[in-house]
Amino acid sequence: MNNKYIQVNNSSLMFAAADGKPVLALDDVSLVVPEGQFLAIVGPSGCGKTTILNMLAGLLRPTLGSVTRNDEEVLEPSLDVGYMLARSGLYPWRTAQRNIELPLEIRGVPKAERKQRVEELLHLVKLDGFGTKFPSQLSQGMRQRVSIARTLAIEPKLWLLDEPFSALDAQTRITVQNEFLRLWEATTSTVILVTHDLAEAVLLADRVIVMTARPGKIKLDQIIDIPRPRLVDDLMDDEKFKNLESTIWKELRSELI
Amino acid sequence: MNSSSSNTSLSPGEKLLAEYQGLTPQQKFAKNFNLPIQLGKLVFIFGFISIWWAAFHFAWINPGFIASPQMVWSWYVENYNNGDLWYDTLVTLREAFYGWSIGSVLGVFTGLFFAVYPKIWKMASPLMTFLNAVPRTALVPIFILWFGVAETTKVLISLTLVYFIVMDATRNAAAMIDPDLETVMTTMGGTRRHLFFKLSLPAVISSAFGSIRLAAVWALLGAVFAELFGSKNGLGIQYSEAANKLFMAEAFGIVGIIAFLAIGINFFVKLIENRLMRWKETSNQGSVVTV
């Protein structure tokens, strides 16, 4: 296990908007994430949470500083990183199973093997029998589960989650969160979840980072020592969870006001 | 309550459902058959034929230059197994098909190319606007000089019509591709080739297909139009000759054939479209059933 699996070193990132006006999205952010950790990044909109994810995904490079994974600088997207978005990002003209197949096609996995793998994945996300449905024929929660299965297909070492549960209704969100925890807890992979929902961050993560409003800086770094396996719906009444949430909320509130 | 329980315990809604499900397709058709509308369709068709008949019968138009409905009908009856006429139809359809398919493929690929390289589009767009504005009427004589009266000329004319329709639709469709889908593909390690074949191409073909279907009818019209100027075979040249010789029944008959071909082409391409667009099916509830 690499204790410095991910390192963000004194990174600042500036965007130049179309009108030439510069926007400083991140200001001197440093962060170390050990392998296997579930880290949640919480902060107000526009604090640069998604920018950090995009840097880790290799889609953006910091203006100043550097980002490394396994001691290698992240310069481009990597095949063992899974990226999930708020909207499912499913290809509407592909059935559920063909969506899950997509990363395998890109990797050049032979067809017979793909088919078998997809069956297993559909079973894992409890969507047996829904493989031939198009996204438009599935509910929001089912679509997000297909999206999880698609990300699982690449057996990611690192999950980058950009508010993947935020578009779901309250009940569905709990089911899909539990589903994700169950699947992730069986692996040794690292997760970085970006969310504006503090409760979600505390329920799911091992560690929560709170960021300030733009330009984003790290304001608080808190370990969440709630034992695993966790069940989201049970935890909601847990004293420890409530205490941690209120502690962090006090920190975050001053940023929001 | 389940379906095995006796009829007496069904709720009013369940009873309704059971009754409707028991209907044969013919009975469902009969239930949905709207007599006034069907009669209305006949009224319009009958009205059209009456005015046409009157124009001939009362000589509103010089009877030498118009055929009556009966004359056109008898021309169809005489010629339905006329091999030459079928061959001319085949030639025109073949020209239209080549024009449509080549024009569509070129339109989709260059449209995507321009969407991917917007700077090149900025440079090319004044020329493209000019080329699209060139009247095809003016092109036909030049093309005949270059390529003769062979089918090539007709294919090219219909191609120039199809190309601009499809190219424009493709460029617009490419601009509408959900950027999330691109992020997903890129983070999965997809290359430019993957982005093109697995995202841009299918996304664009499905959203530009309405225009591709429209272009199929334009392809037919383009082919017929080019044939009018000179051709060995084809409905256009047959029409032109019939009209010049004042064989009005034949001329009207051919115009009718062309119109029916256009309807048929639209229908068949629509079938392909429905097949390609299965994924767009939403939870369509249909219309309310009235009792």
Largest sheet of chain A: 6 strands, mixed
Whole-number count of domains of chain B: 2
Based on DSSP secondary structure assignment, what is the total number of beta strands of chain B?
0
Greatest interface and its residue counts? A-B, 28 and 23 residues
Compute the gyration radius of chain B: what is it? 26 Å
Give the number of domains of chain A: 2
Overall geometric form of chain A: globular
Element-level helix/strand string of chain A: EEEHEEEHHHEHEHEEHH
Spatial order of the strands in the main sheet of chain A?
A: 6-7-8-3-9-10
Instruction: Tell me about the largest β-sheet of chain B.
Output: none
| Average pLDDT level of chain B | 89
CATH architecture of the largest domain in chain A: 3-Layer(aba) Sandwich
What share of the residues of chain B lie within helices? Answer: over 70%
Rg result of chain A: 18 Å
- Share in helix of chain A: 25-40%
Describe this structure in words.
The complex is a heterodimer of chains A (257) and B (291). Chain A is α/β, with parallel strands linked by helices and 257 residues long. Chain A has 2 domains: 6-80 and 157-256, P-loop containing nucleotide triphosphate hydrolases (Rossmann fold, 3-Layer(aba) Sandwich); 90-155, no CATH class. In chain A, 37% of the residues lie in helices and 24% in strands. Chain A contains 8 helices and 10 strands. Chain A has a 6-stranded mixed beta sheet, with helices on both faces. In chain A, α5 (170-185) links the parallel β7 (158-162) and β8. In chain A, α2 (96-107) packs across α3 (111-124), α3 (111-124) packs across α4 (140-153) and α6 runs antiparallel to α8. The radius of gyration of chain A is 18 Å and the shape is globular. The mean pLDDT of chain A is 90. Chain B is an all-alpha fold and 291 residues long. Chain B folds into 2 domains: 7-64, no CATH class; 75-279, MetI-like (MetI-like fold). Chain B is built from 12 helices and no strands. Chain B has helices at residues 12-21, 25-32, 35-57, 69-79, 83-116, 118-133, 136-147, 151-175, 179-187, 192-228, 235-244, 248-276. In chain B, α5 packs parallel to α8 (151-175), α5 (83-116) runs antiparallel to α10 (192-228) and α10 packs antiparallel against α12 (248-276). Classes of the chains: A alpha/beta (257), B mainly alpha (291). At the A-B interface, β6 and α2 of A face α9 and α10 of B.
